[in-house]
Design a protein that fits this description.
With 426 residues, the protein is α+β, with helices and mostly antiparallel strands. The protein has three domains: 154 residues, Nucleotidyltransferase, domain 5 (2-Layer Sandwich); 85 residues, Nucleotidyltransferase, domain 5 (2-Layer Sandwich); 82 residues, Gyrase A, domain 2, CATH 3.30.1360.100. It contains ten helices and 17 strands. Strand 16 and strand 17 form a beta hairpin. The relative contact order is 0.08. The mean pLDDT is 84.
Length: 426
């Protein structure tokens, strides 16, 4: 089963990486692990690698871009985000997602040097990621509630139908106010506003350790929410994020000059053993098939010999050329030589019963034409031939011994069996 290795790169000031192996459905195959990238590289050899970068170093936006695609659309992005950028656009990388139904396009912006640093760190460990997403882009969208994800001092917020964003502030109350999730107690009511802003319904995702640290703060703020549910991430955020790996608005940072190229040499080194085993199986299969063909040819030759022997016995006067066609031709002539095949079949049936009842009597050759069956018969005596004629006559047929001669085993005779009223042939 194809596997994906999901890596969560450390935030600035942290050293350890988290990783998790998942299947195609996004379900965890192994438990979450933490450590240096060199340990994760062992699993990366046989899996597709997707890295999650900290959102603190990535800008997520959703500008309204002009119609178009490719390079033309990419050139328009810096101008659409001009007011949100603080660095020189030549030092930034712009990655585009799929245009959404509302006409806006998800865009991720990251410093070129930061992205290069991540790729160099991964490359030094022997890891080539297929994609790099910002971690908060995998926070699921809930159409009826605001999703909150508290990760140490960072609060990620995702409102229904909107892109997620992060706030790096403490205490929690201040972060919630800046994010606009709860009202600012120091803000003066807007001029002309008749009603206060409605409270939000939210679901908070948090690890057990972080919840122990902020539980008191959220309980004190419970009145600032229309409703607040808490979901404890007992195994950490990575398994939770992995379930939304196929999110349509998640933007892959590896675009343009950083787009992934196929390293066929590395792929061959990875799959060389499997390819050699497959080649060995193919050779074994071809050898087995060749042996079967050889055996079949040998059996065919033996069968051809038997056919030739039967043909020579049944048609001694004809030259062997194509036994099957010659047999079919002879049977066809028999079928059309008289009123129908029923006479031939009836004669054979009667003759078969008579021969079976006459000991040591055998038919050597026979031919059929116009309701008459001519045959050469070997019998132990003339009495046996007479008995054969009588048995045939009891079946309503006429049997005539046309000639006979003594042989070592008894008597050899030419007989003719025909339907009543049929013309005798000599």
């Amino acid at each position: 089963m194809p596997q994906t290795l999901l890596l969560r790169l450390p935030a600035p000031g942290q050293d350890e990486t988290e990783w998790l192996s998942i299947d195609e459905a996004g379900s965890a195959i192994t438990a979450k692990q933490r450590g240096p990238l060199s340990l994760a590289a062992v699993l990366a050899r046989t899996a597709k690698v997707i890295a999650l970068a900290p959102a603190t170093q990535i800008l997520l936006a959703e500008p309204e871009l002009p119609p178009g695609s490719g390079a033309r659309l990419a050139r328009a992005v810096p101008f659409a985000l001009e007011e949100q950028l603080t660095e020189d656009i030549d030092q930034l990388c712009f990655a585009l997602g799929h245009r959404r139904s509302n006409g806006r396009t998800p865009v991720a912006v990251v410093s070129r040097s930061v992205l290069q640093g991540w790729l160099q760190e991964l490359g030094a460990a022997g890891i080539q990621p297929a994609a790099i997403y910002t971690d908060i882009s995998l926070v699921p969208d809930n159409p009826g509630q605001t999703i909150l994800w508290l990760d140490k001092s960072r609060l990620a917020v995702r409102r229904p139908g909107a892109l997620p964003f992060g706030v790096e502030l403490t205490p929690v109350a201040e972060a919630l106010v800046v994010a606009g999730v709860i009202p600012d107690p120091l803000a003066e009511p807007a001029e002309g506003a008749e009603e206060p802003q409605p409270l939000e319904s939210a679901v908070l995702y948090v690890t057990r350790e972080d919840w122990a640290r902020v539980q008191g703060e959220f309980e004190a703020l419970a009145g600032q929410f229309a409703s607040l549910k808490v979901q404890i991430l007992t195994e950490g955020p990575l398994p939770w994020l992995s379930r939304n790996l196929g999110a349509a608005d998640a933007v892959n940072l590896l675009q343009g000059e950083f787009a992934v190229t196929t390293d066929y040499g590395a792929r061959w080194h990875r799959w060389r053993t499997a390819a050699m085993l497959a080649a060995g199986l193919l050779v074994a299969h071809v050898a087995a098939a060749a042996l079967k063909i050889h055996q079949a040819n040998h059996e065919t030759k033996a069968l051809d010999g038997e056919i030739a022997q039967v043909f020579s016995q049944a048609m001694p006067s004809e030259t062997l050329q194509n036994p099957r066609r010659q047999m079919e031709s002879r049977l066809d002539r028999i079928r059309h030589s008289g009123p129908g095949p029923q006479y031939f079949l009836r004669t054979l049936e009667a003759l078969s019963g008579a021969v079976s009842a006459t000991p040591k009597t055998a038919i050597d050759t026979l031919s059929y034409r116009e309701e008459s069956l001519d045959m050469k018969v070997s019998a132990p005596s003339l009495a046996a031939l007479s008995q054969l004629s009588q048995l045939v006559a009891k079946q309503g047929l006429q049997a005539e011994i046309q000639s006979s001669k003594p042989v070592d085993t008894g008597v050899e005779a030419q007989m003719q069996v025909r339907a009543p009223g049929a013309k005798a042939h000599r």
